[in-house]
Amino acid sequence: MEQSAQATIQELKIKVQQANLPPEISEKLLNLLLSPGSGAELSGLITYINFVISLPFSKLSQDILDINRAKQILDKNHHGLQSVKSRILEYLSVLILHKQKGEANSFHAPILAFIGLVGTGKTSLAYSIAESLGRSLIRIPFGGLGDPVSLRGQSRLRPDAEPGQIIKAVRSIKVSNPVILLDEIDRVAMEHRVDIMGVLVELLDPAQNQAFLDHYLDFPYDLSQVLFIATANNTGNIATAVLDRLEPIQMPSYSDEEKLIIGKDYLLPKAIDEAGLDKNILSIDEACWPQILRPLGFDSGIRSLHRSLQAMCRKIAMKKVSGEVGPFKITGENLGEYLSV
After folding, report:
1. Residues 121 and 94 grouped into a single domain
2. What is the pairing mode between strands 111-115 and 227-232?
3. Shortest CA distance to 63 belongs to which of 119, 154, 134?
4. For every residue of 279-320, which 3-state class applies, written as one string?
5. What would the pLDDT profile of 22-40 be if each residue is shown by its tens digit?
6. CA 279/CA 262 separation, integer angstroms
7. Residues 130 and 224 in one domain
8. What is the pTM of this model?
């Protein structure tokens, strides 16, 4: 073996020994370095060991156990949805009590699953739960997911092997207790639905996820401290075994009255800020809001409303950089200039 490769292997051995790894993992890596191979095989081993060393085996973020703060965050981020917010606060209260008793490792919180139409606030509620606990969140989209390998990883025997999305998420977030959002689990590709649902059962079952096996890692990884949250448009395409491990929360549709408050108080200020505009540069006549709320008829969610307000603010931004000073007012006469249908 050439001298530079030997030096690399020695460096890896030192890194493994200095890393805070479980003893059995450290032993596994050091044994692999006894016969590291050469060329592509050595390169793959280097990549593998560096990945394993970077996993947060024993690193946990400190939870914020303050139910009043959680209520404030939910009310700040979401208008209405009182029954949903009450259920989340109950869920967090139980979690807090178990943690205060020192039962965090033995208590397994139910997996909340927000079920509802597009734009009803499912994903943003997951972010609010993470914010309430002071945990980082990472989203894994299931829409169109066509291969369980992307969740569970590929064996290192394959030249193009890589870890699955779950282990990648834990590594990127750098703690072993993040919130992982399993988004739109009902929209996986039908031909692989059975296999993907099988992986989901393992992820969501407390008896199994403490030893989740990623094929790339080739050793079990403890996911029991991860807080999983799921979303779906409906439950029709979700396997019964997965549903048994979920606590579904049905998302209500928004009324026009609720959308009006959300549009004025939440979405418009957000869209103005996203466009780089000053907060007082834009005003909208009251008479324009019904058409902004329903440009194409009834919509149960607020996603199209958000997009419409973002489009308006982008048009204002273009006027601003083109030399117009403002402030700008949207009225019934000029609404068509700003509202693209």
Report:
1. yes
2. parallel
3. 134
4. CCCEEECHHHHHHHHCECECCCCCHHHHHHHHHHHHHHHHHH
5. 999 999 998 988 877 767 7
6. 16
7. yes
8. 0.81
